[in-house]
Amino acid sequence: MRFLFICGCGHSGTSLLLAIFSAANDVHALTDETHFLLSHSTCEFKSQYGYLAQGGNLIVEKTPKHVYALDKIVADPECGALVMVRNPVDVIASLKREVLMFNRVSNAIETTTNSGLPAKRPRE
């Protein structure tokens, strides 16, 4: 059994990729973001969620902020990571659509500031 973690910036296609994996026969895709690896090990994740495989070969989990746990993921031979990358202009356009469609300015700001990727300050 293998474990795959989808991570990266929010609005970069992580949900779409999870939906594609969930359509496969021998894959169990977790539908909710667990944030599990932010405070636990991959061994603990496997103990907690490994039973879901039930004959499947792959368990897929999507939490964009697991980009901060890549060191844990790549250190485990049963785990892999897919890091989604999208043009930042397209990410902002996606957030803008969310604001226009749902009038969620606060959600768009929060998503941008908590995107799962570290922001770099400009040099002074």
TrEMBL record:
The lineage of its organism: Bacteria, Pseudomonadati, Pseudomonadota, Gammaproteobacteria, Cellvibrionales. It comes from the Bacteria. One of its GO terms (molecular function) is sulfotransferase activity. This is Sulfotransferase domain-containing protein. It comes from Parahalioglobus pacificus. Residues 4-101 form the Sulfotransferase domain.
